[in-house]
Automatic annotation (TrEMBL):
<dbReference type="GO" id="GO:0005634">
    <property type="term" value="C:nucleus"/>
</dbReference>
<dbReference type="GO" id="GO:0008278">
    <property type="term" value="C:cohesin complex"/>
</dbReference>
<dbReference type="Pfam" id="PF24571">
    <property type="entry name" value="HEAT_SCC3-SA"/>
</dbReference>
<dbReference type="InterPro" id="IPR013721">
    <property type="entry name" value="STAG"/>
</dbReference>
<dbReference type="Pfam" id="PF21581">
    <property type="entry name" value="SCD"/>
</dbReference>
<dbReference type="GO" id="GO:0003682">
    <property type="term" value="F:chromatin binding"/>
</dbReference>
<dbReference type="Pfam" id="PF08514">
    <property type="entry name" value="STAG"/>
</dbReference>
<dbReference type="InterPro" id="IPR020839">
    <property type="entry name" value="SCD"/>
</dbReference>
<dbReference type="InterPro" id="IPR039662">
    <property type="entry name" value="Cohesin_Scc3/SA"/>
</dbReference>
<feature type="domain" description="SCD">
    <location>
        <begin position="315"/>
        <end position="400"/>
    </location>
</feature>
<dbReference type="InterPro" id="IPR056396">
    <property type="entry name" value="HEAT_SCC3-SA"/>
</dbReference>
<protein>
    <recommendedName>
        <fullName>SCD domain-containing protein</fullName>
    </recommendedName>
</protein>
<dbReference type="InterPro" id="IPR016024">
    <property type="entry name" value="ARM-type_fold"/>
</dbReference>
<dbReference type="GO" id="GO:0007062">
    <property type="term" value="P:sister chromatid cohesion"/>
</dbReference>
<dbReference type="GO" id="GO:0000785">
    <property type="term" value="C:chromatin"/>
</dbReference>
Length: 1011
């Protein structure tokens, strides 16, 4: 009895001691940074706690006499403590003496030229000669893999119960020299790929010891390994904990494979036994087979027990470790176990761990569990077993797809949900919810959502076909009036695509109300100006969605059929059919598009043609020269189709501004040389006429911008440059006449303007702005009978008293004036040999008069957008006039005309200071330098909806860019450089890039001062 209780007390004490020493079992808390004095005091507390626990344990389990003896031993334990500490110190010293010894197994592991298979076989040979020596070498190798320099000897293997104490001593001895960058995470070249190599070694080791049956015939082998690895997995030292956990997980993975193999062998043996039993011919053979079955059964039981021990002792605690790398390894290996050994691990008891980790705080771990689940859902064998798991954790998966911060996890979550959808576990409303992510700003997410959209299209398409009644009807629909045979069933699918895109477009904002920062804005603001010189086109939602889905829908690759569908007059054909019950009538009713659907499909058509040209479906692996030739031929063949298609579309949809935008973009994809190659001069002229009509017809910025872009592209084709220029002059004259008719005899500076007149003036001047940006307009704009510049100046002078509704009109006037002066200066430079000083002085005098009118505009902070355009205009003109220096070789005029007056420079800098201040208020920037006190400044008053960080940063950076340009050209003083550079790294990356252009001037000034 006494011996039994003594053993129980000893084990209790060791367990409590282990719990105290390796307190990271649940939390993974790291104690590596604790000082030595703190450890000494804590050690004393541990001993006192252990003594109290021992006495309490004895009182609970003993009778009186035994209790008395144990109490006496407890009292004597204090006297024995010094002796115990002395023994521990000697053992630590022995460990330190062995620190410098190498480990051949570890050295071979880090030698990437060494064969792992040969390494494992060599170790097995060592083990078969001397089992104890083989175990010591293997455990020391594990310690070296932890980054530990201490090693054990054969004496430490004698008592498994002392593993915890020995490991504690090893940790204490190696506390100072322990590698923080331990091998499996080290980025050193020495350990590059070491983690993968270590896992591979463990797998080969398990395979070989099981094949040679050391795993089953020598149970002490796995017992010793388990004792050390499991103890290390609860260590407070991360290197020990992580490495031992990795080895444990790798062992379970390999043991799962072994268990599979043994199970199959047992099944084969059972079949053999049943066969021999039926024959009853050879009793001896039946005994042999039965013996094999029994052996396999024992092996299976051993393997299951070992796997469960590792899972309960390591995985259950480490899957929630404080280190995300350890948690990630646990999740990854659990997924492998489920695939390798589904009979045990593919169960709700184990699946729940994956569900819990979906809410892990580490993105790395969440991403790993999503990838693991994706593998399970892609395997048809697991679908039935995943139903309950899906019901429980599906809301979390959808939440991750919609709102996860990490974009990689969002993409993987959407891929996972697609697997869930294919299993039939998603409801229609959940699929609709995920489809709204087609409008996400991340192109990768839009691409991942494409399969959901395709599934919805197919579902609605089948419903439409069922509405026709006879499923074979789609094959029976003939041609009308001798038309060529059309692939009309595709029309229904085009109709479905348009309906679904519109439906998603209308619901996306409401569904993603909590995630609006990741969703494209619904409409482009047509009041915003579009830069003609910019290659970037403002894209709306439908365009971005089309870029994601077009390459995945075979019917959209056949864009000629889509164009045919759009050109077809569905109303006229349907009206010719008398009976509403007639199949053709029902067909045309179902597939007839609405105006909104036509606009959507025109955007889709543009994307389809664009992708066909720039992402063609032919072998891109061919030689570059051949590829370039094929690409040119393909682009030319597409252009030939567009030659007749674009004019037809413009004629049919000329009433719709939205449709015209898409068609004009489509026209810009035509290779203009095709017109010349096929002698289509008249067709080209007709096309220019249609473009001009669209420009003059629609008061829409997007239409005007795309029309001007088409004309600008046409200008670059030299063969038709004269035809293009004639058309541009016609448009200029028509636009000027429109402004002239509106102005009549009014003095626009003082006249009262009605809302209708302001609207007409704004549209007319916008057209002048756009058309003057691509071609010299002086001859048309500045005639003796009517000067556009004078009319624009009258409008600019209304700044003193104008109404908010006139804002766009004033801005348009400023922009148009800028283009006028640009062309005037270019004219002077081009004809510098024939220009008199009188002409030069006249244009400079006009410029100075214009600038005098800019002072009140820029100083008026009530309308900061007008101030922005005025400052931009002023600096641009000074930079433009700087080019006149090339014709001032004879000093025709004073050089001071190239420098902005001091007063105006101060106004510009104060305006920039104001923009910077407004930006810092909404962006919470700190440490920014200002030129004036905040109390003396005023808020920007107009259009508070635009005072967002992005808009204010745009104004701030563009004004800064203009000021930097003026300083570099000498139009502004260098004294402002310290102020501009002083705010570097405080106002964003864009600001930093702009002011970095001043570094050269600042360096030159410093060098000048030194000299």
């Amino acid at each position: 009895m006494v011996k039994m209780y003594n053993e129980e007390v000893r084990r209790s004490r060791r367990t409590r001691q282990q719990r105290k020493m390796f307190s990271g079992l649940e939390t993974g808390e790291i104690l590596e940074d604790i000082s030595g004095s703190e450890l000494e005091s804590n050690e004393g507390e541990v001993l006192i706690e252990d003594e109290y626990t021992e006495s309490e344990e004895v009182e609970r389990h003993s009778n009186g006499r035994v209790n008395k003896r144990i109490k006496e031993r407890t009292k004597n334990s204090r006297k024995m403590r010094d002796e115990i500490e002395g023994v521990k110190l000697k053992r630590v010293l022995r460990l330190e003496e062995r620190q410098e010894e190498g480990n051949s197994l570890f050295e071979a592991l880090i030698d990437y030229e060494a064969s792992l298979e040969a390494l494992v076989l060599d170790w097995i040979d060592t083990y078969e000669r001397d089992a104890q020596q083989g175990l010591v070498e293997l455990i020391n190798c594990i310690l070296k893999c932890c980054g530990c320099g201490q090693m054990i000897n054969i004496d430490h293997l004698a008592d498994q119960d002392s593993v915890t104490d020995t490991l504690y001593e090893i940790q204490e001895a190696s506390r100072v020299n322990l590698m923080r960058d331990y091998p499996i995470i080290s980025k050193s070249n020495m350990y590059k790929g070491f983690k993968k190599r270590l896992i591979d070694f463990v797998h080969r080791w398990i395979d070989q010891v099981s094949l040679r049956e050391h795993l089953y015939n020598s149970p002490e082998l796995m017992e010793q390994i388990q004792a050390w690895v499991i103890a290390m997995s609860s260590s407070t030292f991360r290197s020990f904990r992580h490495t031992s956990t990795l080895i444990s997980l790798a062992m379970v993975t390999s043991l799962s494979g072994v268990l599979n193999r043994v199970t199959k062998e047992e099944q084969i043996a059972n079949k053999q036994y049943e066969t021999e039993k039926k024959r009853r011919s050879n009793e001896e053979r039946m005994k042999i087979v039965k013996t094999r079955i029994s052996t396999f059964g024992k092996q299976i039981e051993f393997l299951k027990t070992t796997i469960n021990d590792f899972f309960d002792s390591v995985f259950v605690h480490r899957y929630r470790d404080i280190d995300p790398k350890i948690r990630c390894d646990c999740v990854h290996e659990l997924g492998l176990w489920m695939i390798k050994l589904p009979s045990i691990f593919f169960d709700g008891i184990y699946l729940r761990y994956l569900g819990w980790v979906l809410s892990d705080i580490s993105p790395l771990t969440r991403l790993e569990v999503v990838k693991t689940l994706s593998k399970l859902y892609s395997n048809n064998e697991f679908i039935a077993g995943l139903r309950h798991f899906t019901e429980r954790f599906k809301p979390r998966l959808i939440e991750m797809a919609l709102h996860e911060v990490d974009s990689n996890i969002r993409c993987s979550s959407i891929t996972l949900l697609n697997g869930v959808r294919l299993c039939g576990f998603l409801e229609d409303d959940e699929i609709d919810l995920i489809c709204t992510l087609l409008f996400d700003t991340d192109s990768r997410i839009r691409k991942r959502v494409s399969p959901f959209f395709l599934a919805k299209v197919e579902e609605l398409f089948e419903n439409k076909i069922q509405e026709l009644g006879d499923p074979t009807l789609k094959c029976k629909i003939g041609t009308e009036n001798g038309d060529s045979e059309l692939n009309k069933p595709l029309w229904i699918k085009y109709k479905v695509i348009a309906e679904l895109l519109i439906q998603l477009d209308e619901t996306a904002d409401d569904v993603n109300s909590s995630n609006k920062e990741n969703i494209f804005v619904k409409d482009f603001n047509n009041t915003d100006y579009l830069d003609i010189a910019s290659d970037l086109k403002p894209q709306n939602r439908i365009h971005m969605v089309s870029m994601a889905i077009c390459s995945d829908i075979e019917e959209l690759k056949n864009w000629e059929s889509l164009a045919e569908y759009l050109l077809h007059d569905h109303v006229a054909v349907s009206s010719k059919l008398d009976s509403s019950k007639e199949p053709k009538h029902r067909f045309y009713q179902i597939c007839a598009p609405t105006e909104k659907e036509e606009n959507v499909l025109l955007q889709v058509l543009y994307v389809c043609v664009y992708l066909d040209i720039f992402s063609p479906d032919y072998d891109i692996k061919s030689k570059k020269k051949l590829f370039s030739q094929i690409k040119d031929e393909h682009e030319e063949s597409v252009s030939r189709i567009l030659l007749g298609l674009v004019p037809s579309l413009l004629k049919k949809f000329n009433f719709s501004a939205d449709a015209s935008v898409s068609i004009l973009r489509l026209e810009q994809l035509i290779k203009l040389s095709v017109y010349q190659n096929f002698r289509q001069n008249k067709t080209y002229e007709n096309l220019l006429d249609l473009i001009g009509k669209q420009f003059m017809k629609h008061p829409n910025n997007l239409v005007m911008k795309e029309a001007i872009s088409s004309l600008l592209k046409a200008q670059q084709f030299d063969e038709f440059s004269s035809i293009t220029q004639e058309k541009i002059v016609e448009i200029q004259e028509e636009a000027v006449n429109q402004l002239k008719n509106i102005k009549s005899n009014r003095d626009l500076k003082t006249a009262h303007l009605s809302t209708k007149m302001i609207e007409n003036l704004t549209i007319a001047i916008k057209r002048l702005d756009y058309i003057s940006s691509i071609s010299d307009c002086i001859k048309v704009f500045e005639t003796d009978s009517f000067k556009v510049s004078l009319t624009l100046l009258e409008l600019v002078e209304r700044i003193i008293s104008f109404d908010d509704s006139e804002l766009e009109m004033i801005i348009s006037s400023l922009r148009t004036l800028k283009w006028l002066y640009l062309w005037k200066v270019k004219h002077l430079i081009d004809h510098k040999d024939n220009i008199s000083s009188k002409e030069l002085n006249a244009i400079i005098a006009d410029r100075d008069k214009l600038f005098d009118k800019f002072y009140p505009i820029i100083e008026n902070k009530k309308y900061y957008r007008i101030g922005y355009y005025a400052v931009s205009f002023l600096i641009d003109l000074y930079v433009i006039f700087f080019n006149l220096k090339t014709i001032n070789t004879k000093q025709i005029f004073d050089e001071t005309i190239f420098i902005i007056p001091e007063k105006m420079q101060n106004i510009i800098i104060l305006l920039l200071n104001h923009y910077i201040k407004q930006y810092t208020k909404v962006n919470d920037s700190r440490g920014v330098k200002f030129l004036i006190d905040e109390e003396t400044d005023h808020e920007l008053e107009d259009n508070s909806d635009e005072k967002t960080p992005l808009v204010l940063e745009k104004f701030m950076c563009e004004i800064t860019g203009k000021v930097v340009l003026a300083i570099l050209n000498g139009a502004m003083s260098n004294k402002y450089i310290p102020y501009l550079i002083g705010n570097r790294d405080k106002l964003g990356l864009s600001y930093n890039h702009i002011v970095s252009e001043l570094d050269i001037l600042e360096t030159n000034e410093k060098n000048t001062e030194k000299n």
